């Protein structure tokens, strides 16, 4: 095993990781390369941000001129703060998938009340969502969180069309989230993959789960002029500074881990990923902060010595999650022992786009241009 001399990833984290002669991994080099292309220098950021703000303000005379997702976490909360500070008229959207912690609910309440913004909460059908999550668990694929990410995007696009809103502003950002080994996640809008996995392992017909497939999303972008803006990439974003700001102005309280506002996400990152897949997702989060200059490697290594989650909390979470899924602990443990499988073992957009038939279609399309 070889460890990166710059970040905290090593050769066991992803089969694609390579190292240069100085021991710096390919994930760090990729971060630097994409950062130069995607994140503008400070002076250019300010200019580009003003251009984006002007476009958004001119885009609608209705009640709202942008949509923001609200989870109660640091990134989405800070976007809400900055968007309101910039004089935009956002509609905040939250997906209640049945796993919100009490602290998340309180943080969201504080955000919308103190900022004076409207909140639309989509409460997902729990019976359907439970069946989908169980399907992904039984399929032994890594990105179970794909389902929540897919649904929130679908809800935001539906609202964008309904209210004639052209801009969806995201808390996703490259500066503090740019490093993520490809084997740890899968394409979030791959409805083919969701349907294929659920068809094989599900037991309930899915009627109301919000969906937005790859081709449908592209069509909506083109037909309705919807643009996805990574707002935090347009400002100088420092996560610790952001935390202090929202704590001071919005009474925001920390969850103790990235995306731990969700009970399932906390359990997924603290138990399912390391137990079944050998993944400590903190390594990607910390490595990104190292490359962003917001953390040193020594500080990251010290943080990794600590448990992913408080052992007492983890035990309580396991009991709660297993019971909520309607499983016995023995049944859940058997699922954890199943061999992990790549998402591409099931039908997917990626597989379809790489198929011989689709390559022929692309070739014909090029000839007709």
Q: How would you sum up this structure, described in words?
A:
- The protein is of the alpha/beta class and 369 residues long.
- The chain has one domain: HUPs (Rossmann fold, 3-Layer(aba) Sandwich), CATH 3.40.50.620.
- Helix content is 54%, strand content 7%.
- Helix 5 packs across helix 8.
What are the key terms here?
globular, alpha/beta, 5-stranded parallel sheet, 7% strand, 54% helix, 369 residues, 17 helices
**Secondary structure tally: strands:** 5
Beta-strand proportion: 5-15%
What gross morphology would you assign?
A: globular
By DSSP (H or I, 4+ residues per run), the number of helices equals 17
Helix content: 40-55%
CATH superfamily: HUPs
Quick recap of the structure?
The protein has 369 residues and is of the alpha/beta class.
Question: What's the layout of helices and strands?
Answer:
Layout: H1 26-38, H2 42-59, E1 66-69, H3 74-85, E2 90-96, H4 102-115, E3 118-123, H5 126-139, H6 146-162, E4 167-170, H7 174-177, H8 191-201, H9 214-224, E5 227-230, H10 239-250, H11 263-277, H12 282-291, H13 297-304, H14 311-324, H15 329-337, H16 349-353, H17 356-368
Parallel strand pairs: 1-2, 1-4, 2-3, 4-5
Helix pairs in contact: 3-10, 5-8, 11-14
